[in-house]
Amino acid sequence: MSCQSSNLDEQEIRIKDNMDRIKHKIVVMSGKGGVGKSTMSTNIAYGLSLAGNKVGILDADLHGPNIPLMLWVEGTKLPSLEKPLELSENLKVVSLSFYLENSNNPIVWRGPAKIGAIKQLLGDVDWGDLDYLVVDLPPGTGDEPLTIAQSLGKVDGSVIVTTPQDVAILDSRKSVKFSEMVNMPVLGIIENMSGFVCPHCNQRIDIFKNGGGEKAANEMNVNFLGKIPMTAEMVEAGDQGKPYIFSQREGVAFSALNSVITDIINKTKGEEKIMNNLKIAFPTNDGETVESHFGHCKQFAIYTVKGEEILTKEFVDAPPHEPGLLPKFLGELNINTIITGGMGQRAIDLFTAQNIDVILGASGKIDNNLKEFTGGELYSKGSACSHDHDEEHSCSH
Ligand SMILES: Nc1ncnc2c1ncn2[C@@H]1O[C@H](COP(=O)(O)OP(=O)(O)OP(=O)(O)O)[C@@H](O)[C@H]1O
Fold this sequence. Notes:
Homodimer. By secondary structure, the chain is α/β, with parallel strands linked by helices. It is built from 13 helices and 14 strands. It has two domains: 8-268, 3-Layer(aba) Sandwich (Rossmann fold); 278-374, 2-Layer Sandwich (Nucleotidyltransferase, domain 5), CATH 3.30.420. The strands form two sheets. Strands 1, 2, 3, 4, 5, 6, 7, 8 and 9 form a nine-stranded mixed beta sheet that branches. The chain binds adenosine-5'-triphosphate (ATP). Adenosine-5'-triphosphate (ATP) is lined by residues 30, 33-39, 61, 64, 66, 139, 192-193, 228, 230-231, 234-235, 238.
């Protein structure tokens, strides 16, 4: 398989044509390796296919393509890129390992070659019409997963797999930011390896602590898909190439996985619109009106909204004025949008670097601006101020 396409434009067109035949695309990602991302990918894909959907699973984890092992097709070699491997009437799989001479050898390609190979898979493999494509991304939030996610076109959403330790919050935050960067809604966070129930004494042991993934979901204002406990059967199922969801019929992990799959179906098929919570900040001095000089405002009124519903409202004191500090300060509070009068281009750039949208031209009562915003009627009316002033000066002219 050649890793370079002779004609990139043609390849982009082929990728688009292939991707257009797939109704829903889901990427499964994790901030770091070994948390059960591939296990979740195979179980989600299997579960979706058992629910009657036509499903493809793309193993894009170039560092350790282990989906074939988990589906009992390790060692399979495909002669050409055209067709995926059919596991059942409803489930097809493609892994880079199908095209490697020896999949036991670690892949030592450099980044661009690996990405070239994945693009070639996306452009050349004919999946046919699918209800779902589940993509197992490489771990992390670096260039490789980013380029792959961007090559997929419109993705329905990401499923972020993490473990229960506190450090999961940091990893999940990166994964949520990653999703925002590629304009992908977050379908939710799965807390995997969440406790172990001893089969002999029924005592629950929280080997990796408990609740980190759920806490992360709450902090990031994204959906929590559920906790999947550690089970010996999950390891066994993975090693035997029979996904857990296929080989088990009961148990806490089985119910939790089923609930994850139902949630994904509801969110992607539109029964439940994916509406992530949004955190919106208004600079204010009196608590009621939008302050146009946000760099020197006393407070920020911060609202968490879901659609048009206001979930929380709080006031946070602004930190002492220091150039460049406010975008970072609001970034750490996970603000999605700042609504204000006006601001300089440098400040806009600093907010954008924090993944915070800037809406300019607002004035008057905060409540009215918020209503307009959640009703989809508030757009940036201003542009960056071009005259000289400090970067966090804000004005409404
Ligand atoms: N809930 C669970 N209970 C028990 N074992 C699990 C569970 N989830 C995953 N495992 C096991 O953990 C190991 C790592 O899982 P997996 O390969 O899915 O992780 P990964 O995040 O995809 O790793 P990598 O980054 O290396 O691709 C596997 O042996 C798998 O069977």
